[in-house]
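4.2 Preliminary Data

To establish feasibility before requesting continued support, the project team ran the inverse folding procedure on a target of 362 residues. The structure was first converted into the token representation described in Section 3, and no sequence information of any kind was made available to the design step. The complete token record follows.
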């Protein structure tokens, strides 16, 4: 949103470069936000604060309330708290911290809240979604609770109760853990947070699926269009078996390009505008490199055979230690004193080489 406001041309170019059914770049985005937004959030985050400071949250709540954001509580990294402490009064006075009930509920002061929440867009994240639009956000199908549901259901319900409002669910297309990749878009799942009859908009890195008011067949097609291509064929088979797709259904060629490599290639020319940590981080550059490398290493050494294969590949490649001396010093591996430390050093060097992307285009 900050890029859309400050650099419209680059925003348009980046969106157009992406594969998948992202839809047309909206008309009128040649100019910055003029009316601005009013924010209503259970958790006031660093991202929302930066959007406020960028001049996007500028629409006042309503007559008599000279604020642009209502929040229930705030949570974030240390640099967020520091920025709040150092912010001038004219910025802080635009933020109203109130009760979670005031934010999450429409009722109690309904007339005022309906005036404030005009054409609202309620954005939440999820763990999984089905091809028919049901969403799972708080627990697994075996009963294990991952987190509280928070205000997600409240906001989804409001999106259907307020005129012009929409519920938007953000979802990573896949989950990678212990060297395995699984789709977060599935045919069916044994736990539901938001039921299919409240389906609305679901977004993955591959595009936008607008499901509200659509028949099941169309919902399935739109969800397939934003599914990682490695899992589309199996979902098509399940949909056909359930008679939600015609027996002769074929995936359009454009949908088959939903791969991480395609996303990387599309966004590579724009990385100068898409930093990994857009609001800053407490980590220095060496620590950022190590965080990426260690995550990569964890994903590729989950099993014994994966570990053995990665060690063999690391030894065979003989990675050069010199460019990574500060990183080895940070992990106290510059001069390993035992066999496990020497193996660990080779693995880290291999992971650093595997995850380096080279200079970011300017």
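Position-by-position output of the design step:
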């Amino acid at each position: 949103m900050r890029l859309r406001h400050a650099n419209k041309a680059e925003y348009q170019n980046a969106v157009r470069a992406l594969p998948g059914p992202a839809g047309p770049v909206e008309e009128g985005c040649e100019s910055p936000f003029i009316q601005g937004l009013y924010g209503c959030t259970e958790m006031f985050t660093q991202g929302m604060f930066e959007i406020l400071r960028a001049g996007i949250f500028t629409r006042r709540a309503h007559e008599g309330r000279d604020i642009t954001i209502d929040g229930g509580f705030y949570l974030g990294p240390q640099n967020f708290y520091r920025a709040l402490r150092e912010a001038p009064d004219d910025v802080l006075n635009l933020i109203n911290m109130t009760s979670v009930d005031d934010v999450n509920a429409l009722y109690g002061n309904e007339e005022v809240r309906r005036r404030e929440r005009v054409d609202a867009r309620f954005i939440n994240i999820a763990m999984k979604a089905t091809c028919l639009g049901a969403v799972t956000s708080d627990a697994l199908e075996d009963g294990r609770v991952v987190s509280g549901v928070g205000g997600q259901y409240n906001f989804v319900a409001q999106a259907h109760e307020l005129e012009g409002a929409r519920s938007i669910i953000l979802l990573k297309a896949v989950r990678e853990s212990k060297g395995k990749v699984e789709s977060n878009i599935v045919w069916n799942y044994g736990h539901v947070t938001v039921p299919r009859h409240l389906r609305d908009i679901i977004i993955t890195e591959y595009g936008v699926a607008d499901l509200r008011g659509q028949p099941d067949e169309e919902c399935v097609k739109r969800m397939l269009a934003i599914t990682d291509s490695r899992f589309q064929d199996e979902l098509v088979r399940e949909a056909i078996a359930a008679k939600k797709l015609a027996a002769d259904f074929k995936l359009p060629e454009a949908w088959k390009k939903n791969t991480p490599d395609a996303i990387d290639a599309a966004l590579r020319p724009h990385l100068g505008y898409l930093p990994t940590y857009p609001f800053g981080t407490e980590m220095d550059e060496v620590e950022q490199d190590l965080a990426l490398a260690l995550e990569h290493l964890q994903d590729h050494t989950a099993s014994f055979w994966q570990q053995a294969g990665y060690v063999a590949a690391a030894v065979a490649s003989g990675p050069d230690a010199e460019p990574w001396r500060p990183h080895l010093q940070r992990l106290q591996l510059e001069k390993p004193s035992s066999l496990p430390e020497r193996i660990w050093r080779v693995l880290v060097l291999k992971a650093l080489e595997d995850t380096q992307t080279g200079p970011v285009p300017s």
